[in-house]
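Retro notes
What went well: the complex prediction finally ran end to end.
Inputs used:
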Amino acid sequence: MTAQDHNSFRSGPDEEGRFGKFGGRFVAETLMPLILELEKAWDEAKADRSFRAEMENLWRYYVGRPSPLYFASRLTEHLGGAKIYLKRDELNHTGAHKINNVLGQILLARRMGKTRIIAETGAGQHGVATATVCAKFGLKCVVFMGATDVERQKPNVFRMKLLGAEIIPVTSGRSTLKDAMNEALRDWVTNVEDTFYCIGTVAGPHPYPAMVRDFQSIIGWEAKSQIKHAEGRMPDMLVACIGGGSNAMGLFHPFLDEPDVKMIGVEAGGKGVDTNEHAASLTGGRPGVLHGNRTYLLQDDDGQIVEAHSISAGLDYPGIGPEHAWLKEAERVEYVAINDDEALKAFQLCCEMEGIIPALEPAHALAHVMKIAPDMDEKEIIVLNMCGRGDKDIFTVAEALGIEI
Amino acid sequence: MSRIERRFAKLKDENQAAFVSFVMAGDPNPDIFAKLLKGLPAAGVDIIEVGMPFTDPMADGSAIQLAGQRALAAGQTLKTTLEAVATFRKSNDDTPIVLMGYYNPIFNHGVDAFLTDAKAAGVDGLIVVDLPPEEDAELCIPAREAGLDFIRLATPTTDEKRLPVVLHNTSGFVYYVSITGITGAGSADTEAVEAAIARIKAKTDLPVVVGFGVKTPEQGAELAKVADGVVVGSAIIDTIVGKLDRKGGAKVGLVKNVTAFVKSLADAVHSARG
């Protein structure tokens, strides 16, 4: 069988965990039996209706799903073009889409009899979501976080501690998200018996990219039925921000075989993709192998990984989920970059026009919508994934605007 | 016969285990590294593992992580690592060299170009941590076609069912990782290692060497009684670090100190079987 069924963009990955040439299982031998065990458990859980039923129950009563699809009327009027809908995943418990995936993985961990959960986190949203669900189920939770991020994300660090998680500041490498992921992998290699690694995005070795996507796809399935209800048809365009790419993959995946729905993934352009300070792996990187999969990476001439930069800590990762790399080369999804200052303007506009304080991550997606919506027809429809709320970002934004609070 | 086969055959005749040392290319800087490398065979090293520095070494403990960072900061690249091997080969044609590291710098260099360049430099084998048997088509099979051994890691999590998969395309020797964990972590229990080696040897004729967590001549000697070879890495790097000043510069006597420690390890391993 070839990697993908050419009639569908939704059939990947293949049995080797590949999306075209991307993805795979590039891990140390010690971990290989563990990810094979995980793949088997995930396949069994998928086929078990009680697993799905438990997850849906918790999504509804613990997370607050379905999240609304909200017509942003003033924003639409202000931009003077396409109709803009916001998929409000920022209203979820813990304030972002991250918990959709965490719930699924923790239920799987319980099914597998694992008692200790480890996770990496950058901005702290995935760490908070993991700590939250671990508290709910009484599981031990250890979160790896770059020492630099521990310093700049103090509120989330305290939240995780309140929830009973142990935070391990990572000082290896350059003390950021990619180093936290390295350290989590080192922990997993060491604690193979009782530990489940809860990865926060659609990256890592197979089956993580597909599994996390499947958990996040609830965003897209809901949006699909909600837009049909509101407008009686499919949207013309989906827009979502991309760090590792889980919120975008979750929104896009159920729509991939709708030929008339365009999709745009918005990467963090930092200070500009022509500078050395950005996090746009697809726009400014090239294929390589890191953290268990082949994908687009920010790297130097020698194949060493270079540090990503973005005003948004959640987009600050030098790689990207392998399925996005494949969708880029298949030209099914368009990928663009938005700079720090553009995201800041969008952040402010969203506060003023809609009374919604967005996270800096979806502010990148909104900044791109601000560029394209005015040139679109009034009958056209854009769905933007509002994947997180901005409470965590107010200090960063104040500093960037030169305001003391 | 390859250099690796010749070395194990010779050791077998002498009833000795192989002493395998790991050093990071370019650590603490390219000049000192070249001197260290050149002195290893005379100190009794049978096989040299040369680390290819990488920014994100996910299976390594802090000693090897920091060694890689020092090397990268000193300007080491995959190209200069291959040049260092080529220079070593000018004065030594019988000590096998195995490059050990991660896949991305090799993939970035281009697999075919890398294999050609490595072969030309005098490299004998490769250990690439993040290429399990599931990814053999990437580098393992092309390497063997190019005449380079692809040495695989077997670990305590490699069970009976999986062991044949791991051994299938392995050549040169088998590297048994004695602990679940990262390099330089806790020590292995000799009895457990002995049982694991017996398990592996039941399925292959290749020599089995043991590494991860071996720190002293005594531990080396202990393992040399049950394995075909013993690898020491982090402890050698710790000796290098002991001779660095605050700014990371090499103090006088670094090469002499490290070489003396390596010799104590090699002597212990070679004399272990009486």
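What we learned: Chain B has one domain: 3-271.
What to try next: split runs per interface for comparison.
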